[in-house]
Amino acid sequence: MQEVLAKAAEQATQHGATRILAVRLRIGGLSGVVPDALRSAFEVLSGATMAAGAALECELVEPVAWCPACQFEFAVNDLVYVCPRCEAFCPELRRGRELEITSLEIE
Amino acid sequence: MCATCGCNQPGPSRIDGQPADDIASPLVPSDEAEHAHLHVHADGTVHAHPHTHDHAHGEHHDHPHPHPSEHAKPGDVHEHEHRHADGTVHTHLHGNGHEHSHEHEQEHEHEHEQEQEQGNTASHARTIPLNQPILAANDRQAERNRGFFKAHGLLVLNVVSSPGSGKTTLIQKTIEALRGRLRVGVVVGDLETDHDAARLRSAGATAVQITTGTLCHLDAALVARAVTRLDLKTLDVLVIENVGNLVCPAAFDLGEDLRVVLLSVTEGEDKPLKYPPIFQNAHAVVVTKGDLGAACEFAREAALANIRRAAPGAAVFEVSARTGQGLEAWIGYLEGKVGRQ
After folding, report:
1. Regarding beta strands B89-94 and B78-83, do their DSSP bridges make them parallel or antiparallel, or are they unpaired?
2. Contacts of residue B124 in chain A, CB cutoff 8 Å?
3. Nearest chain A residue (CA) to B85
4. Helix (H, G, I), strand (E, B) or coil at A56
5. Which of A17, A68, B192, B198 qualifies as a cystine partner to A12, CB 3.0-4.6 A?
6. Chain A contact for B127, CB < 8 A?
7. CA of A23, closest CA in chain B: separation in Å?
8. Do B127 and A11 touch (CB under 8 A)?
9. What is the ipTM of this complex?
10. pLDDT digits (tens, 9 = 90+) for A62-74
11. Is-contact B307 B279, C-beta < 8 A?
12. Secondary structure of B52-90 in the HEC alphabet?
């Protein structure tokens, strides 16, 4: 979260802002991030920064793997990606590990 | 603390006996540093840039630069990672406490949007799109390591397995087989003792021992500090022998080129199915202790099938370090990889 706030502040300042009104995050289901924990950390840490009082919006991304044999995407929710059609182990995770700042609302 | 399993007890990690945190590395940013510019040139030199870029990048040059820093060691500089709005990332290394007037000339292919808009008094809310990834600290450090290793033209292996699968013995035989052909340096991780490093030094490699005390895996920062004790310019191959553990190392990129997973015939044929994450990211899987297979009634075909299932795309080798069986193929694989750096 400190990383998120630091990057947000850096970007906001570069754009000449003095306040951050909202921080929008994209969080993959397998990123290891728990949105509630992130929210708590945000509330605690943002108070002393230009993001004080800002809203935190989290877009959750469902993890999806790719089976090259079946040419088929399937949702996964743990560390083993087994294709529901052919039962092969598919190591390619297409989405779900993200932790990104998608945008900031500033003034 | 290990973020994967939560294990954590007092006692610092040590590198060749010295507390790891006392070993400065140009790859690891210090806590107080805000700005730094790390340039790793093709010849492997790492140095700092003052912020008036009055020279072309890429040419070899000496920098006697002022370093208003509290660090006494000349090599210890501060690292700065620049993430720009357009998504480009570059890292620079220099002294701290300076003003950022980014006057980058034509040498930089990207643009800095650095105007500080003084007097922006209009209170209009606006949205700025970023789409900037926040990388976990270890991933960032691993990328710094990776860039550094590549600049030195090194082939880097991260060797993982359960405790006792034969990592050290295989590495020892590898060093001996490559003697006179490729120069090997080793970083070994264990909780305690320097037995492995000592063994590998006897085999002819330069070796650094990391003793983690309690940490169950190596991480990129520990590796970055440990390699300061090796003269990387004199090496062709860097082997990192991880702590014996098939679980936690999977989550910690060290900056390696090849992740090599060992599985001994005494461990059973279904291990790859039981420990998917570490196998999923393997570039190579080596089945070790082949000379004991018959005694264990090792289900070889089943094991190979499970390895192919859990580690699709990995190169698979079956060896006995003791008898030498299968080593030629393994060595050939490594030599082929070195050529491609």
Report:
1. antiparallel
2. 107
3. A11
4. strand
5. A17
6. yes
7. 10
8. no
9. 0.75
10. 999 988 888 989 9
11. yes
12. ECCCCCCCCCCCCCCCCCCCCCCCCCEEEEEECCCCCEE
A25-46: buried (b, 16+ CB within 10 Å) or exposed (e) per residue?
bbbbbbbebeeeebeebbeeeb
In this complex, is the C-beta atom of B30 within 8 Å of any C-beta atom belonging to chain A? Answer: no
Amino acid letter, residue B57: H
Question: How many Cα neighbours within 13 Å face the side chain of A25?
Answer: 27
pTM over 0.90: no
Exposed, middle or buried by CB within 10 Å (0-12, 13-18, 19+), for B72? exposed
Contact A4 B125 (CB under 8 A): no
Do the beta carbons of residue A103 and residue A4 sit within 8 Å?
no
Using the CB atoms, write b or e for B267-300: b if 16+ within 10 Å. Answer: bbbebbeebbbbbbbbbbbbbbbbeebeeeebee
Nearest by Cα to A64 from A74, A55, A56, A52: A74
| pLDDT value of residue B213 | 86
CA–CA gap between residue A16 and residue B158 (Å, rounded): 45
| 8 Å CB contact of B134 and A32 | no
B85 touches A at CB < 8 Å: yes
Q: Residue B276: phi, psi to the nearest 5? A: -55, -45
Taking the C-alpha atoms of residue B184 and residue B205, their distance in angstroms, rounded to an integer, is: 6
pLDDT at B56: 41
Q: Do A100 and B132 touch (CB under 8 A)?
A: yes
Q: What is the pLDDT of residues B290-318, one digit of tens each?
A: 999 999 999 999 999 999 988 988 999 99
